[in-house]
Design a protein that fits this description.
- A hairpin with a 6-residue loop joins β29 and β30.
- The protein is mainly beta and 1233 residues long.
- The strands form 27 sheets. It has a six-stranded mixed beta sheet with strand order 3-12-11-6-7-8, with no helix packed on it. Strands 14, 16, 17, 20, 21 and 22 form a six-stranded mixed beta sheet that branches. Strands 32, 34, 35, 38, 39 and 40 form a six-stranded mixed beta sheet that branches.
- It is built from two helices and 114 strands.
- Keywords: Disulfide bond, Glycoprotein, Immunoglobulin domain, Membrane, Signal, Transmembrane, Transmembrane helix.
Length: 1233
């Protein structure tokens, strides 16, 4: 949004000594000088920095045109009361502060606004208005001053010392800001959140649950806003852990005699672990390192390092078995010198010496493990898992350690092998009758093989050599000739066969084999004949027998085999022999298969009979030959029953039982049987219950057995009227009721019902279960008692029968189940044990109860200094009467916790240490003592913390003062006790001994450095601050001349500003309240303004302003008018015309009033020379107007200034008064107060 900008319309009066027409002329001038209304253009404003911080500086830079006449800045609105300053850039920059200025705002050449030392209250909306030749511009921006974050701190609760896996801790970030963001750092790095470590919703509390060692370290909280950040000092968390399993280094286990052994032991722990070394269970050292400079063989053994943690009381150990080695000697090989091929061979090397390694040589070749060769026991053992003939050799064992070696004597190993498969030569198999058979045989073997010859599996007694010779062959010589090679050392033999054929006709065919066989047994029939190259066929009756299933034909069908004969194989079998030129058949061979007996069938299958009836049973079983039968009763042979039929008349109860028919086949040797159980019913009677054991004891098994007379009796058990069923502990086995284990709740009245199909009876039994005693209960349940109080303990343990009780005090027997102690003393502290016993169960149980007697806490008081100095350390001690007292500290009713600079020392926190002390520690402290039975609080203990003085602050923060004013400086330095102050001027002159320094009627001599020194007589500290004061002259109103100039276009105009020549005084110029034209020329230290080449735009009211650091003053205005300016076409708009008309009407009213008062004044006191009323001096060298007179009461207070205008450029004022020229015109500025 734009805004309307308006310029000032100065009112001018022109009272003179001539006529009133001059007043009319002045009114016309005023009306023609009014500013017009225009629309403002919106511009952007940038902030640097974008997020300013409290205490920083900020610069607001507007956009838009850089050629502007003036600019104004406003805070929170654009009313005059909100104006910060108005800035005129040229010719000399001038800043005029407004009502909203704080003295910290500075204008820049580009209309920027710089604010020093930002405060939070500077937050707000800022608006800039710029007047430029192109029209007004406006822009706004908002400043958000961010808080300068103070340094946070971190507190830990309950303690920053944690035990691993047990303790937890909450860390709290202590900050004053409510808007700052909080994050956490661990050892300087962003903290990673996990399930054990989490933060609160506002991130200000960090919880570590179940601390682990990796949680130890420094925790910091970081607070930030968009412009600042701050970080706490680290809060160091210590985690007590370990020791872990120690590690021994080096882990070398072998050493040479007389060498050096140096071992170190380390176990991770906090605090560092303590160590104990032992060798073979004898303590050797309590250091982490164990050093043995000259180790001996007797130092071999188990080395143990034990680590323990003095805080956690935990221990851990590790061990190392060390062997001290000696020289190698007496190397020997044990093992066989001969072996059989493929058998395992084991050779073992032994020696004397330590840490010996072994190597094996076969001849001169190193033996390496692999395949059949296994080296074990540090190569001590050489094993051939399956020896072979190539293993025959000399073997040597070498023993080696780190500093010696030795070798065994060679060990000869001879491997016996073979015989391999013999080779028969020649391999010719067919011979003619009458020829000679000449065969030789050879088999590889160690030692050489022995040979024998076999003919058709018959040893040829006269053939013991490797050669076989048979002359004049006949058909009887045809067959299989076998050479058998034997090695007596290996025990092995091997053979090769060669079948010799001698052709002849088939004749004398016969069958060899059994004529009978048992079913399922194998049967083998073999056919033989005379003749050459005979083939065979078998017939069952007239049916050809073919191989398959159970039937196997082998040896060119010569052999017929039934692998598992059956009854269907019974028949006549015939064998036919055939060769290429003849055939013949055997005589029939009868084969009879014996089988059975199969399972007998008993008829009838009726199993229940009445007493007096007849039992008539028959039995039959399939069998070849027919079976023989026998009858059995309850596994007893019935001697008179040898037939297939069993007959028993007039049955009685004694005949009930199991009847078995046994069928037997004497040929097969098999038998088979079938049984039939016969029941003969009797009435149920004489039911009884017996307990085993006689006395039932809880948690042991108990069996109730029910018995009765009668047949086929079943049983039902009841407890009271409730039928029992099997469950977790109770099982029913018809007549038996079993409790396993027995429970006390099983006590009660039990009934057993016996019944069969036509009768029943019952018996009852009372079961009383003995149990207990249970764990005793001791009452009352309190452990802690005050000295002098009464105590009675009671003991009860549930038991059947009732328990018997015995009391023990610290293991010494007392009496009675309860006892009173009328007044407890300290010697009554201890363990009270109640023992309950049961004579029936032979069990006992006990319970212990610890009683502690405490002295009452009283007379709690605090000892320590009541006064301390900040940053020192102070210790307060809490003492009291009472036993096992723990203490809690409070400051102003606020509980104190260990952490930061507060330490609670002692096992019961009896000491409070503040280190270092700070001023906030001053206050009232109390100590609260408590034990298990009482508590008490000390009287308040005042602690006064002396501090300071801090760096003094001098106020007000002004450096410049006007000559003649009063300088009042106040010095303040926080201190306890209150500081004493001394003021110094320029470091030497002592001026005042109080916190305030007042200088009245300040002069230039009072400029200099003022030092305030603050001293604390108790801390013996002092501090000082220096403030520079500059006393500057009080500026009077500058004189601007000429007061008016009417010039022609393109002429030059020079204005002179007369003011103080002091170097501290600067001069700036304005035109109509705006910056002067750019083309203006300044000279004489800005005190002379030249406007060259006058144009219409240069018309207006000019003023000069004198300024130093303490005050400023503005001159009278000087009007520059262009001749004939009124005749020019202004191009006024309708709105401007309306504004001029309204302005003229208002101006006419004002002019009439002004003329009236001017005429009235001049008519009452005109003198020869006029002077000003003192606010603006008269122009030098000019005639003055009427003498100003102070109005009397009731009169209007009119101020006016006489101005002289001349159309020509005036010369500088001379040293003396002169008269105005005849052409000069005198005007006056009239203001009504």
């Amino acid at each position: 949004m734009g805004r309307w900008a308006e310029g000032p319309c100065p009112a001018w009066g022109s009272p003179g000594k001539k006529s009133s027409w001059q007043a009319a002329l002045l009114a016309a001038f005023i009306l023609s000088s009014c500013f017009l209304l225009t629309q403002a253009k919106t511009i952007s404003v940038t902030l640097n920095p974008l997020h300013p911080l409290e205490g920083q500086d900020v610069t607001l830079t507007p956009g838009g045109t850089s050629n502007f006449l003036l600019c104004r800045w406003f805070r929170e609105g654009d009313a005059e009361k909100n104006r910060i300053f108005t800035y005129y850039p040229v010719p000399n920059p001038v800043q005029q502060d407004g009502p909203s200025s704080t003295g910290r705002e500075t204008a820049g050449s580009n209309c920027s606004l710089s604010i020093r030392s930002l405060a939070l209250k500077d937050t707000g909306n800022y608006t800039v208005l710029k007047d430029s030749p192109d029209g007004p511009e406006s822009g706004s921006v908002r400043i958000e001053v961010l808080e300068l974050l103070s340094k946070p701190s971190v507190s830990a609760f309950p303690s920053r010392y944690l035990t691993e896996f047990i303790d937890s801790v909450n860390l709290t970030c202590e900050i004053t800001s409510k808007t700052a963001s909080v994050s956490w750092l661990y050892n300087g790095e962003p903290l990673e959140i996990n399930p054990r470590i989490n933060v609160s919703m506002d991130n200000r509390t960090l919880a570590i649950n179940g601390a682990v060692r990796s949680d130890a370290g420094g925790y910091q909280c970081n607070v930030s806003n968009p412009a600042s950040t701050n970080q706490s000092d680290p809060m160091y968390i210590s985690v007590i852990y370990g020791p872990d399993t120690p590690e021994i280094r080096p882990n070398e286990t072998f050493y040479n005699e007389h060498s050096e052994v140096s071992l170190s032991c380390y176990a991770d722990a906090f605090p560092d672990a303590h160590y104990i070394w032992s060798i073979n269970e004898k303590e050797r050292s309590t250091e982490s390192k164990l050093h043995i400079p000259d180790v001996l063989s007797e130092d071999s053994g188990k080395y143990v390092c034990q680590a323990w943690n003095v805080l956690s009381r935990q221990k851990n150990s590790t061990s190392l078995n060390i062997e001290v080695a000696g020289s190698v000697y007496n190397v020997t090989i044990n093992g066989p010198s001969t072996a059989i091929e493929y058998h395992p061979v084991h050779l073992k090397c032994s020696s004397f010496g330590s840490d010996v390694s072994y190597h094996w040589l076969k001849g001169n070749q190193l033996v390496e493990a692999g395949g059949r060769i296994i080296l074990t026991d540090n190569n001590r053992s050489l094993t051939f898992t399956s020896s072979n003939r190539d293993d025959t050799a000399n073997y040597t064992c070498q023993g080696v350690n780190s500093f010696s070696s030795n070798s065994s004597q060679p060990h000869w190993l001879n491997i016996f092998y073979g015989p391999d498969t013999p080779i028969i030569d020649p391999q010719e198999s067919v011979y003619n009758e009458g020829s000679t058979l000449n065969l030789s045989c050879f088999a590889i073997s160690n030692p050489p093989a022995n040979y024998s010859w076999w003919y058709n599996d018959q040893l040829l007694e006269d053939q013991h050599e490797s050669q076989l010779l048979i002359p004049d062959l006949s058909g009887s010589n045809a067959g299989i000739y076998t050479c058998n090679a034997t090695n007596d050392n290996t025990g092995y033999f091997n053979a090769s066969s060669l079948e010799i054929s001698i052709l002849s006709s088939v004749y004398n065919v016969t069958i060899n084999g059994p004529s009978t066989a048992i079913e399922y047994h194998p049967v083998h029939l073999k056919c033989s004949s005379f003749g050459s190259d005979v083939s065979y066929h078998w017939l069952k009756g007239n049916q050809l027998v073919e191989a398959g299933g159970r039937i196997i034909l082998t040896d060119n069908n010569r052999s017929l085999t039934f692998t598992s004969s059956n009854r269907d194989d019974t028949a006549n079998y015939t064998c036919q022999g055939v060769n290429s030129f003849s055939s013949n058949s055997s005589q029939p061979h009868w084969l009879n298969i014996f089988y059975g007996p199969d399972t007998p069938i008993i008829d009838p299958q009726e199993s229940v009979y009445n007493e007096g009836s007849t039992l008539n049973l028959s039995c039959f079983a399939i069998s070849n030959p027919p079976a023989n039968y026998s009858w059995w009763y309850n596994d007893q042979l019935l001697e008179d029953q040898h037939e297939s039929q069993l007959l028993i008349p007039d049955l009685s109860g004694s005949n009930a039982g199991i009847y078995t028919c046994n069928a037997t086949n004497d040929n097969t040797g098999y038998f088979n049987a079938s049984s039939l159980e016969i029941s003969i019913l009797k009435r149920v009677s004489n039911v009884t219950i017996v307990s085993h054991p006689e006395k039932a004891i809880e948690n042991q098994p108990t069996v109730l057995n029910c018995s009765s007379a009668g047949s086929n009796v079943s049983y039902i058990w009841l407890k009271g009227n409730q039928k029992l069923t099997s469950g977790d502990r109770i099982s029913l086995n018809n007549s038996s009721l079993i409790f396993n284990p027995t429970s006390r709740n099983d006590s009660g009245n039990y009934s057993c019902y016996g019944y069969n199909s036509f009768s029943n009876s019952r018996a009852t039994y009372w079961l009383d279960v003995f149990y207990g005693p249970d764990d005793p209960v001791i009452s009352p349940q309190g452990h802690d008692y005050a000295e002098g109080s009464p105590l009675t303990l009671h003991c009860y343990a549930d038991s059947n029968p009732a328990s018997q009780y015995t009391w023990y005090f610290n293991e010494n027997e007392l009496r009675n189940a309860e006892f009173p102690i009328s007044s407890l003393a300290f010697n009554h502290s201890g363990n009270y044990t109640c023992n309950a016993s049961n004579t029936e169960t032979n069990l006992s149980s006990s319970a212990s109860w610890e009683i502690k007697v405490f002295a009452i806490v009283s007379n709690v008081s605090i000892e320590g200094p009541s006064e301390t100095i900040e940053y020192d350390s102070v210790t307060l001690s809490c003492i009291s009467n009472g036993s096992e007292v723990s203490y809690t500290w409070f400051k102003e009713n606020q509980r104190l916790e260990d952490g930061d600079h507060i330490s609670l020392l002692g096992s019961n926190h009896e000491s409070l240490v503040l280190s270092p002390v700070n001023r906030s520690d001053a206050g009232s402290y109390t100590c609260h003592g408590i034990n298990s039975v009482s508590e008490d609080t000390s009287d308040a203990f005042p602690l006064d913390v002396l501090y300071g003085p801090d760096d003094p602050i001098i106020s007000p923060q002004e450096h410049s003062y006007v000559e003649g004013s009063t300088i009042s400086l106040v010095c303040d330095a926080p201190s306890n006790p209150v500081a004493q102050y001394t003021w110094f001027f320029n470091e030497t002159e002592e001026m005042e001994n109080s916190s305030q320094l007042v200088i009245s009627d300040a002069s230039f001599d009072n400029s200099g450095n003022y030092t305030c020194n603050a001293t604390n007589v108790k801390t013996d500290n002092s501090s000082a601050v220096t403030w520079e004061i500059q006393v500057l002259e009080k500026l009077s109103q500058p004189i601007l001349w000429p007061a008016a100039s009417t010039v022609k276009e393109h002429e030059n105009v020079t204005l002179n500003c007369t003011t103080s020549e002091s170097s501290s005084v600067s001069v700036s110029w304005l035109k109509d309240g705006n910056p002067i034209p750019v083309k203006s020329i300044l000279s004489a230290r800005n005190r002379t303004l030249t406007v060259p080449d006058i144009s219409k735009d240069d018309e207006g009211m000019y003023t000069c302003e004198a300024r130093n650091l303490a005050n400023s003053a503005t001159s009278n205005p000087s009007k520059i008018t262009l001749e004939n300016a009124g005749s020019q076409d202004n191009g006024l708009s309708a709105g401007q015309i309306v504004g001029i008309v309204i302005g003229c009407l208002l101006g006419a009213v004002i002019i009439v009033a002004v003329v009236y008062f001017v005429l009235k004044k001049t008519s009452f006191g005109m003198t020869a020379q006029h002077s000003s009323n003192g606010n603006i001096p008269s122009a030098p060298g000019r005639n003055q107007g009427v003498t100003d007179t102070k109005p009397t009461a009731g009169e209007e207070d009119i101020q006016y200034t006489t101005l002289a205008f001349n159309s020509n450029n005036p010369s500088p004022p001379g040293p003396g008064p002169t008269s105005p020229s005849e052409s000069g015109t005198i005007y006056s500025v009239i203001k009504k107060k």
